[in-house]
Design a protein that fits this description.
The structure holds two protein chains of two kinds. Chain A is an alpha/beta fold. In chain A, about 30% of the residues lie in helices and about 30% in strands. Chain A has two domains: about 200 residues, HUPs (Rossmann fold); about 120 residues, 3-Layer(aba) Sandwich (Rossmann fold). Chain B contains eight helices and 15 strands. Classes of the chains: A alpha/beta, B alpha/beta.
């Protein structure tokens, strides 16, 4: 009762990074709230993951296993999550903001008639006083996210409904295992009692799930292009520089929308969140939508011909000028200095 | 096949947050939301196209827009008409105001129950909130299956719909019985353009409120043409429990809004000269940031 629940997503037999990031975050929230962290995992053979979940601080693991649950399907998965959350009545339930989490969490929140906040970039514990009634609430979950195209940052709360639900994107929170795994317990969910034949009316006919080939998150150096790069052809310059530096190429939402780069390269609130050693922003204006996904980078270099571009203000080095001149000079200088 | 489908497209009028121009900025560097143009939410356009394609394939099918918003959101219904829809409903009532995604889904689901469609198609998410919650929540309220991130509705055998979904790491094709809620991803085909004939015919379509508010009375009266009347539905029309609408039906509350003002941090400004760039690259080497 009153604990924090993390929905654990698996893919290709592995726990998704975002689930471990959420467990890491849940540990610190649980400490503040003096409650426990529980994990909920659904699939075909998923109990094998329990040791890893203990390592990340799950004190109780709820396991729903069934051959029919090999692949994610909205209806049976949501039936199980709804049933478990109703029974356990946690104060907080968190999901990864993945294709699965963003399909599952809203359905669950609707069934539980509880509030859900999508794509949070920060979660904090805090109090609230209702202005009208003067009613005071202690230890609410502050669900913080950019909204309105990233032009505002909103703090959302669910004063009265439980659980307080939120989704969080992969890479936003840190992932940290414990030195010593907790000695937790496993609770097996009686799936047969929950899922019904009607839950399987939607069938998967075919799926090619490809591992993401473009690995922006794992790259220590990222060259990201924005709408200001101008064209798909001009993006080639970024790839040239990336090849020299051993970097990966990223893109802003505007550049992806314009067709300059593939969606898998998108960095920002509606893309991946990155924190590389070096981030080179080329032709990116620096809307919060984008910077929310990269402002934790250790070093930022901005290249933009507009001296007033907001990106320059969060950069450690701001180069004002034409990328068509600057990037070839960077490549040349790199070759000269790298011996 | 002679199957005729009744399709509801959920669409939202949103401020165009993608291109915040200088004239939409206030002096303090924050966005003046009122100055942003109101547009048809982009992914709802993709949804409309999927509906129109079904209508193309199954003649006699009906495509209806359903939107919730203030009086000016009737523009969404007209835009739908221009592109080939058969009609629409504007859900509008002061009691809907302040709705979060859950209260919005409740209102939409009540209106959908009244319409009784075979398929509900919506954009994956709206650009003003990017939550992607309303589609699945509507599906849950109606107890219908949901198929999210649709890229294409590839088939319909008179019984089940085949939908290709775009996921983070690939594609998946699923088959769903009807009625169902489909949410459409931005990678789906763009919507067809407006049709001149429809534009001429439906530009005079009006809600009752719009007619009343028209102080200049500059456009033609609707006369007795009932097909040009855009219906407005309120709580009284769709029924349901008032507690679930608007602010009281919204579990989430906005505690705080911070306008984004870009904070200056100490940055070194460099020119595009080779000397400046070369010294920067040297610094990156010496700090082991690269190399």
């Amino acid at each position: 009762m009153n604990n924090i629940f993390i929905y654990i997503e698996t893919e290709g037999g592995k726990i998704a990074d975002v689930s471990l990031e959420l467990l890491t975050k849940a540990r610190s929230l649980a400490k503040e709230l003096s409650c426990e962290v529980e994990a909920l995992i659904i699939g075909d053979s998923v109990a094998q993951h329990k040791e890893e979940l203990f390592k990340y601080g799950a004190q109780t693991i709820h396991v729903a296993e069934d051959k029919k649950l090999k692949h994610y399907l909205t209806l049976p998965y949501s039936s199980i999550v709804i049933s478990v959350l109703k029974k356990e009545n946690p104060q907080i339930a968190l999901f990864g903001a993945t294709s699965v989490g963003r399909d599952l969490a809203p359905r669950v929140s609707s069934a539980l008639v509880s509030g859900l906040t999508a794509d949070c970039t920060s979660l904090e514990i805090g109090d609230h006083k209702e202005v009208k009634s003067g009613k005071e609430y202690k230890n609410l979950l502050y669900q913080i996210r950019p909204a309105f195209g990233g032009n505002i940052i909103a703090t959302i709360i669910n004063p009265d409904c439980r659980p307080q639900m939120a989704t969080v994107r992969e890479g936003v929170m840190k992932k940290e295992a414990l030195d010593v795994a907790v000695k937790g317990k496993v609770k097996v969910i009686d799936t047969a009692a929950i899922i019904k034949d009607e839950d399987f009316v939607v069938e998967i006919i075919e799926r090619h799930i490809e591992e993401r080939k473009i690995d922006i998150k794992g790259s220590p150096v990222i060259i990201a292009g924005g709408f200001g790069v101008g064209s798909k052809e001009n993006f080639k310059l970024l790839y040239d520089l990336a090849a020299v530096l051993g970097a990966e190429v990223g893109a802003s939402r505007a550049a992806v929308d314009a067709g300059f780069a593939e969606p898998a390269r998108q960095i920002g609130q509606t893309g991946v969140t990155v924190r590389p050693k070096l981030y080179i922003a080329v032709g990116i204006s620096g809307q919060i939508q984008h910077t929310a996904g990269m402002d934790q980078s250790a070093m930022i270099i901005s290249i933009n011909n507009d001296p007033a571009a907001p990106i320059h203000q969060i950069a450690d080095y701001a180069i004002v000028g034409d990328l068509n001149e600057i990037i070839p000079r960077m490549i040349k200088s790199y070759k000269l200095n790298s011996k | 096949m002679t199957k005729k489908l009744k399709i509801v497209v959920l669409a939202k009028q949103v401020p165009d947050t993608r291109n915040v121009g200088k004239n939409a900025m206030k002096e303090d560097g924050t966005v003046n939301r009122a100055a942003l143009p109101a547009i048809f939410n982009p992914e709802d356009m993709n949804a409309l196209e999927q509906a129109l394609r079904l209508k193309d394939r199954f003649p006699g099918s009906q495509v209806l827009l359903l939107t919730m918003g203030p009086s000016r959101a009737a523009e969404i219904i007209r835009e739908g008409y221009y592109r080939g829809a058969d009609g629409g409903v504007l859900l509008t009532d002061r009691k809907f105001a302040g709705a979060d995604t859950l209260a919005t889904s409740y209102a939409l689901s009540m209106a959908i129950k009244k319409i009784g469609p075979d398929i509900i198609i919506a954009g994956r998410q709206a650009i003003d909130g990017d939550t992607a919650q309303v589609g699945p929540q509507v599906a849950e309220k109606l107890n219908y299956p949901q198929v999210t991130y649709a890229e294409d509705i590839t088939g319909f055998d008179g019984d089940k719909l085949v939908v290709k979904r775009r996921l983070e790491r690939g594609v998946e094709t699923v088959k769903t019985p009807l009625p169902a809620v489909i949410t459409v991803h931005a990678t789906a085909p763009d919507c067809r353009p407006r049709h001149a004939k429809h534009l001429m015919k439906y530009k005079h379509a009006r809600t009752f409120t719009e007619e009343q508010d028209n102080e200049h009375n500059s456009y033609l009266p609707i006369e007795a043409k009932t097909n040009l009347r855009i219906p407005e539905w309120g709580v009284a029309d769709v029924g349901g429990d008032e507690i679930h609408y608007g602010l009281s039906g919204s579990p989430t509350k906005v505690k705080k809004i911070e306008n984004i003002v870009h904070q200056a941090k100490e940055s070194k400004i460099l020119t595009s000269s080779f000397e400046d760039i070369d010294s920067l690259i040297k610094e990156l080497f010496s700090s082991h940031t690269i190399g």
